[in-house]
Design brief:
The structure holds two protein chains of two kinds. By secondary structure, chain A is an alpha/beta fold. Chain A is built from five helices and eleven strands; from the N terminus they run ββαβαβαβαβαβββββ. Chain A has a domain at about 1-10 and about 35-170: P-loop containing nucleotide triphosphate hydrolases (Rossmann fold). Chain A has a ten-stranded mixed sheet with strand order 1-11-10-9-8-2-7-6-3-5, sandwiched between helices. The relative contact order of chain A is 0.19. By secondary structure, chain B is of the alpha+beta class. The two termini of chain B are about 70 Å apart. The chains are: A alpha/beta, B alpha+beta. At the A-B interface, helix 1, strand 4, helix 3, strand 5 and helix 4 of A face helix 15, strand 10, strand 13, strand 15 and strand 16 of B. Strand 4 of chain A pairs antiparallel with strand 13 (about 420-430) of chain B.
């Protein structure tokens, strides 16, 4: 475990850093340094159509959810196209995401956004996770303001069509990668791997464009930067 | 309360914009098995000697200028129910009485109007103002009130005067029909009072049918209060209500909201006094023109917080149609019950561990009020192996949210993060029949499988399976009829085949594939070239005698 001093560049409370920053270490491996679900609004988007399962997994793998129940808002069309979230599937991500769960079915985007804002303002839930088909800048600004005022974090899971400006703390773009080697059966999938791109970051714009190749270890319940894969940097976009 | 010619009244009220001429003879006709008959006649038609029950052809012959319309019994019943809803402003217990009457239980309500006679006058004035023809009677029993409304309208009978008051009324006032009425008239018993003196057994013996005798005695007993007759109210008696009489009719939403605020405080005070809370609230707005519009909401937990009630109901205030003005507002508490008041920890650190169920319920109530009653769900594990059955989503209940069900074992194998329900069928190429797929087409895209893991076999839950009814075996007569009657010399082969089919032993039939039987599923976790991970299953095995070649389905996606 390296020193916490390398984290000083990161603002407090926004990213909850657990261990060292990957870029600071040779070989580029170690634990994924960011924790979602502590503060602010995070947008997590598909890289291409069909990646919603991967990004749902990423949100839960990287999450270190606050105490209190989770309100999971699901827009009807997304749940129909990509399947609905299973409680039994959530349980495999360990105690950091094992919270009482309340599901809300929204039919339209405005309903989903209204529910997210209402839940953030109510202070009754620990985290709001919403899967919806998009959000414009105004909506993200509203949610970011509400979240900073009431201290309730929100994770917005959105399809690949979500682009453009945002007022959210960060936007991640997630796609699945071929899984790691399986120790017991070479023909079976091993630890799931993902690629997460930090596309925009309001608090630390210099990190925008960082690419993380991640591997989820379901035995130690940890999300690691995959060894042997270069944590290369994508061309940086303008931070919104 | 009797509404004579209610269908006509309803039609007049429905056609307020272009009223029917009052002095022209007008009838409503009803289609019966014996053709068109008059069902309702107005005053002008009655003056010409037309009566309900007359054949329409006869009536038209007598009065060629007769105008008519067809009855609409459904609309009449709906309108009567609407009127009954409005009558709740006078008494909470209102029941429908046939197709043209209403029954109000006014015990304990009359003093609000200064007495029973005053209440009767008040109601009839209100009805007359809306051009509703009504005859009212008030008595100690439903039977007596029914008789008085029809035969001595406007009279109030005290409970101890029932016997004397009814004596002079005709026996038709006993709610009798058909044979019983005809026989009583034949006996010369025209007034109710004449029945008092007759020995019950002697009276019963005179009727040929036991039903008619029973009906006469029952109705007499009910009218005199010797046999109980429970009222079947339109809406159950609300546990608690708060009522606001507006000094003058209000028409704006803001005014209704102000009224709601006062009512909520009143109602919550009432609930607090008895230590109760309620899980449902309804606001009824009684309009001056004889209609009522209502909004209702439910909560996940018993509450008595005025702000919360106001917030939930004000989402729906737009649905209240003030019409020409609202003069009475009524807030009703439903599903009341004891409320547990648990003290919240004052320190935030202590409270952080426990979920604040009251706060979550309040949030859920607001979401429900905005989005709809059944949008908020609670995932609950069910003890079932079939993945799509293993998780139920009942509506959110505060009680269920607190108690976690720990009795259901977690599934053994890996479960996907997103599940398709129902599973989606795919075209599959498998290298060996019992192995994982090599390639599959899902949503029109061909995906090449690189790695696969499995199978995890999930057997069908045979205890849940209802065997289909066996195919009916033709009995002897049917078999004879089914046997083709052909010339035996011409078609010997065909007949032999048909015979063989009919006489085939049932064992042979059972060996035929039965499609309805559920099949075992083999689940594989597979990964394609791009890294997408799926959960697919083969529905059945080869040669399991439960259908043809098994189909493949995608049921979920892994992270």
């Amino acid at each position: 475990m390296s020193s916490v001093g390398s984290l000083s560049g990161l603002p407090k409370g926004v990213f909850r850093a657990r261990v060292s920053h990957p870029c600071t270490r040779a070989g580029g491996h170690g634990r994924f340094p960011f924790g979602l679900g502590q503060a602010g609004v995070h947008e997590i988007c598909e890289a291409g159509h069909g990646d919603l399962a991967a990004l749902t997994g990423f949100a839960l793998m990287a999450a270190n959810l606050r105490e209190g129940p989770v309100l999971w808002v699901s827009q009807f069309g997304l749940a129909r196209d990509h399947g609905q979230v299973l409680r039994a599937g959530l349980a495999q991500f360990g105690p950091r995401v094992d919270r009482p769960l309340v599901m809300v079915a929204a039919h339209k985007r405005v309903e989903a956004l209204w529910t997210v804002e209402e839940a953030i303002r109510s202070g009754a839930v620990g985290t709001v996770i919403a899967e919806l088909d998009g959000a414009d800048f105004t909506a993200s600004r509203r949610l970011a303001l509400a979240s900073s005022r009431h201290g309730c974090p929100a994770l917005l899971l959105m399809p690949y069509t979500r682009e453009g400006a945002t007022a959210a703390t960060a936007r991640w773009r997630v796609s699945p990668r071929p899984s790691g080697p399986n120790r017991f059966d070479a023909s079976a999938p091993g630890h799931p791997r993902l690629q997460a791109v930090l596309e925009r970051s309001r608090q630390s714009p210099h990190l925008a464009g960082s690419v993380y190749n991640l591997e989820w270890n379901d035995e130690t319940l940890s999300l690691n930067v995959a060894a042997g894969l270069a944590a290369d940097t994508a061309p940086s976009r303008e931070a919104g | 309360m009797w509404l004579p010619d209610w269908p006509l009244t309803r039609l007049h009220r429905a056609r307020r914009a272009e009223p029917l001429a009052a002095d022209a003879p007008f009838v409503l006709v009803d289609k019966t098995v014996h053709g068109l008959r008059l069902a309702c006649v107005n005053a002008a038609a009655r003056a010409h000697g037309l009566e309900a029950g007359l054949r329409f052809a006869d009536a038209k012959a007598r009065l060629p200028a007769l105008t008519y319309e067809e009855m609409d019994p459904l609309a009449d019943a709906a309108a009567l129910e609407g009127l009954a809803g409005w009558m709740i402003r006078f008494s909470p217990l209102v029941a429908l009485d046939g197709a043209d009457g209403l029954m109000l239980e006014v015990t304990g309500c009359a003093h609000l109007y200064g007495g029973e006679a005053e209440m009767l006058t008040h109601i009839s004035e209100r009805l007359a103002r809306h051009h509703i023809r009504a005859q009212l009677g008030l008595a100690g029993t439903q039977g007596a009130a029914w008789a008085i409304a029809r035969h001595r309208a406007g009279v109030c009978l005290a409970s101890d005067e029932t016997r004397i008051g009814l004596a002079a009324l005709p026996v038709a006032g006993l709610r009798l029909t058909g044979e019983a009425l005809v026989l009583l008239r034949r006996f010369g018993l025209v007034q109710i009072g004449q029945l008092y003196g007759i020995d019950r057994k002697a009276l019963a013996r005179r009727f040929r049918s036991a039903e008619a005798a029973g009906a006469v005695l029952l109705r007499l007993d009910q009218a005199l209060g010797q046999r109980a007759e429970p009222l079947d109210p339109l809406t159950p008696l609300p546990a608690r209500t708060a009522r606001l009489n507006c000094p003058e009719p209000i028409g704006s939403t803001q005014a209704v909201e102000l009224g709601l605020e006062r009512l909520a405080v009143m109602l919550c005070d009432e609930l607090a006094k008895s230590g109760q809370g309620a899980r449902g609230f309804a606001l009824h707005a009684f309009r001056v023109d004889g209609a009522v519009s209502s909004i209702a909401t439910t909560t996940a937990q018993a509450i008595r917080t005025p702000e919360h009630i106001i917030r939930l109901l004000s989402e729906k205030l737009d649905e209240i149609d003030p019409g020409f003005g609202i003069d009475v507002l009524l807030l009703e508490a439903r599903r009341t019950g004891a409320m547990d008041i648990s003290a919240q920890a004052l320190s935030g650190d202590l409270a952080a561990n426990a979920t604040d169920i009251a706060a979550v319920s309040a949030l859920v109530d607001r979401i429900r009020a905005k989005l709809g009653e059944d949008r908020v769900r609670l995932p609950v594990a069910i003890n079932s192996h079939i993945p799509e059955r293993a998780e139920a989503r009942p509506r959110f209940e505060a009680g269920a949210f607190g108690a976690e069900a720990a009795t259901v074992p977690m599934p053994v194998g890996p479960r996907p993060i997103r599940l398709f329900d129902p599973p989606e069928r795919v075209e599959v190429l498998a290298s060996v029949p019992d192995g994982p797929p090599v390639r599959f087409v899902w949503r029109r895209l061909t995906r090449r499988i690189v790695r696969a893991d499995g199978p995890e076999r999930i057997a069908p839950e045979w205890w849940r399976h209802q065997p289909a009814a066996p195919a009916p075996v033709p009995d002897e007569a049917e078999a004879k009829w089914l046997t083709p009657k052909l010339d035996p010399r011409a078609d010997a082969e065909l007949i032999a085949k048909a015979r063989a089919r009919l006489q085939a032993p049932p064992e042979a039939e059972a060996s035929q594939p039965v499609r309805a039987l559920p099949r075992a599923r083999d689940y594989y976790r597979i990964e394609d070239e791009t890294g997408h991970r799926y959960w697919v299953f083969r529905d059945g095995l080869y040669n399991d005698k439960r259908g043809g070649a098994p189909d493949w389905y995608v049921q979920g996606q892994f992270a």
